[in-house]
Fold HTH-type transcriptional activator RhaS.
Amino acid sequence: MSKETRTVYLDKELNIETYNFRGIKQKFPNHFHRYYVIGFIKSGKRHLSCKNKKYDIKSGDLILFNPYDNHTCEQVDKKTLDYRCLNIKPYVMKKIVLEITGKKYMPYFIEPVIFNNDIGLLLQKLYFMITEGEKSFKKEEIFLLIIEQLITEYAKTVPVIANQGTNTKIKIVCEFLEKNYMYNITLDNLSDLAGVGKYSLIRSFTKQKGISPYSYLESIRIDKAKKFLERGDNPIEVALKTGFTDQSHFTKFFKKFIGLTPKQYMNIFINKFSDKENING
């Protein structure tokens, strides 16, 4: 049986996070991130659902998630996964695109999966340069070349609008969840706010956003929690700030979505001597 290893690294020069989940079988629930994810499968097979479309992904395939792309994945068989990814915040991506194209825009990746593409070899090389603490500008050079190829071949030059195509009632519900994520919110609250029945709200919301109202709230809470942890807030305090009843509930919830515990995630931002965090299971 493969040993489970989870490694997260913060590259302060490129201002991006890298993850490596090796030997894991974890299923990730339907959720979204507010940052771009560029990932590649080193080994293993997974069923991926993104924006309500299903894919079977395997070794050599690339994954491209835009901010707010809802997705879920699970293993195909009993074998384990080896997955590496780069997480790029929108403002960092915007700066990179301006550097490459001379234009200010947020790229929108058209398809979430690129099957068996050679870019994966460059991504793999970049990943190892980052995790090994490479200091030469070759690392940044490869990074820029990767982004250039991705935005040229697989992206639209249109702004990303989170609520594009969403009707007014659902927008109101989304805005309410954004502002009140730290409180105990009921389905009755949302139903009254939208002026529709609870079942009707769930169906309409899920159809338009690709994710249920509660899963949307969960994703918001995780995003807020990450920001608090990045600045070094105590996980117990973060749990209370983001609507969780206790630290144990928060820890299980965070790991289910991110693949790391809150403390493991926080350590890469507060560790003064190393930006790398290894978590062996």
